[in-house]
Design a protein that fits this description.
The protein is α/β, with parallel strands linked by helices. About 45% of the residues lie in helices and about 15% in strands. A five-stranded parallel sheet has the order 2-1-3-4-5, with helices on both faces. A five-stranded parallel sheet has the order 7-10-13-6-14. A two-stranded antiparallel sheet has the order 8-9.
Length: about 450
């Protein structure tokens, strides 16, 4: 039987009792709940009974070693992160451990400040993976606001608005930038409403000529025009009892605005070429990226139709207003678009920071496109900043980042870059030094300073 989960549970695995006790003391002082195991077999048996958030394991132990603990952790609790600790540091084992899913690699003797800085980040990553798993389960097993991915304050407010508005059965105007998810909001409102057992039909008002728009909306009678060989129901009739979603309602011509206004007022329609009024029962949701209030002042949009549609307004936040949702969204798209049978690569911390800095003129739709391009070009297990191409990689695309943005330190960047270069050249330090633009002795000092490898030449 699996024990109840304790928040921020950290499993320490080390065959040296003093090392275990020291780590437990550090963890308790920092407010975490430590669990201790003297070897790999004991650690795995413990994880079979209890969920953990983070594992800190020695690499070399008798019996099952740290790599086997890492593999078992990812199998039993995929969202848990693993820190590998060893006194036998080498670039090869560091890279191998991270390729197998380790969050970080630490060399003995441990730097306590470094460990205390890394643990919260690892736990944050674990919590994000847990949330992503929960969201995916909701999305696959149910409908509703779980489809609105994110945990930022703006997203939480949006979910609450959707839940409330869905039950009111009134017309709703959904405002937001292109690609921000207005159609998803509309479909979620429908799914949570009392009309969810009926259809939702959508129409993009900017893609049809006026003649085709009339035919699509109202349908036609047999013989109404050349080629009308039989009666055709329009989208409004097909949505009987359900919901009609007008995307980009601001693109509707003035004459079509008059026709739609009449439908909303009278709750009837007449097919093209017809002579009888047909009663309909529909709910209308409309979306636009334009300022309709301003358009009514210039005469580009009818005021009476605007007030009919604007019973309630929902403002969908842009992606830059909810930057903290970017990691969850990016991981969702990695799972969604991964090749069948292939485990999607993980985003490195620096790659996440790069994604969070971008301004996203195309909003969530653009983020999804970026992730799809990454999956095509990146054949590695870890996504690094250089895998993020096109606009995101250009300096001009990086806009103002919120003041409370959490930045990695310069040392974090340097350490990660050195490890990346050494990985690319398979540990050949002379070649790595040339790429880095420093001499071999300077590289040796940096390797020693950051504990990346046994510094003996």
């Amino acid at each position: 039987m699996i024990a109840a989960r304790t928040a921020n549970t950290v499993l320490v695995v080390d065959d040296e009792e003093i090392a275990r006790e020291n780590l437990a003391h550090i963890l308790e002082k920092s407010g975490y709940q430590p669990l201790l195991a003297a070897d790999g077999s004991e650690a795995i048996a413990l994880m079979e009974r209890q969920e953990v958030d983070l594992v800190i394991t020695d690499l070399r132990m008798k019996g099952k070693d740290g790599m086997e603990v890492l593999a078992a952790t990812k199998q039993l609790w995929p969202a848990a992160e693993v820190l590998i600790v060893t006194g036998y540091a080498s670039i090869d084992t560091a890279v191998d451990a991270m390729r197998r899913g380790a969050y970080y690699y630490l060399a003995k003797p441990l730097n306590v400040k470094e460990l205390q800085a890394i643990i919260p980040k690892a736990l944050e990553r674990s919590a994000m993976q847990q949330e992503l798993k929960r969201l995916r389960q909701h999305i696959s097993n149910s409908s509703g606001t779980a489809k609105i991915i994110g945990q930022s304050s703006k997203t939480m407010v949006l979910r609450e608005q959707i839940s409330q508005v869905a039950q009111l059965d009134c017309n709703v105007l959904i405002l937001g930038e292109t690609g921000s998810g207005k159609e998803l909001v509309a479909r979620t409102i429908h799914e949570l409403s009392g009309r969810s057992n009926k259809r939702i039909v959508s129409l993009n008002c900017g893609t049809f000529t006026e003649e085709l728009m009339s035919n699509e909306l109202f349908g036609h009678e047999q013989g109404a025009f050349t080629g009308a060989e039989k009666i055709k129901k329009g989208l409004l009739e097909c949505a009987e009892g359900g919901t009609v979603f007008f995307d980009e309602i601001g693109e509707l011509s003035l004459s079509m605005q008059v026709k739609l206004l009449r439908v909303l007022q009278e709750r009837t329609l007449m097919r093209v070429g017809g002579s009888e009024e047909i009663a309909i029962d529909i709910r209308v949701l409309a979306a636009t990226n334009r300022n309709l209030k301003e358009a009514t002042e210039t005469g580009a949009f009818r005021k009476d139709l605007y007030y009919r549609l604007n019973v309630i307004t929902i403002q969908v936040p842009s992606l830059v207003e909810r930057r903290n949702d970017i990691p969850l969204l990016a991981n969702h798209f990695l799972q969604k678009h991964a090749e069948p049978g292939r485990t999607p690569p993980q985003l490195s911390e620096m790659a996440v920071e790069r994604l969070k800095q971008y301004e996203y003129p195309g909003n969530i739709r653009e983020l999804e496109n970026i992730i799809q391009r990454i999956l095509i070009t990146c054949r590695e297990d870890i996504i690094k900043p250089h895998h993020i191409v096109d606009d995101v990689g250009s300096e001009s695309a990086v806009g103002n980042v919120p003041q409370n943005q959490s930045w990695p330190t310069l040392e974090d960047h340097e350490k990660s870059y050195i490890l990346e270069v050494l990985d690319e050249v398979e540990g050949r330090r002379s070649e790595a030094a040339k790429i880095l633009g420093i001499d071999r002795v300077s590289l040796w000092r940096k390797i020693k300073r950051y504990g990346l490898e046994n510094p003996d030449l």
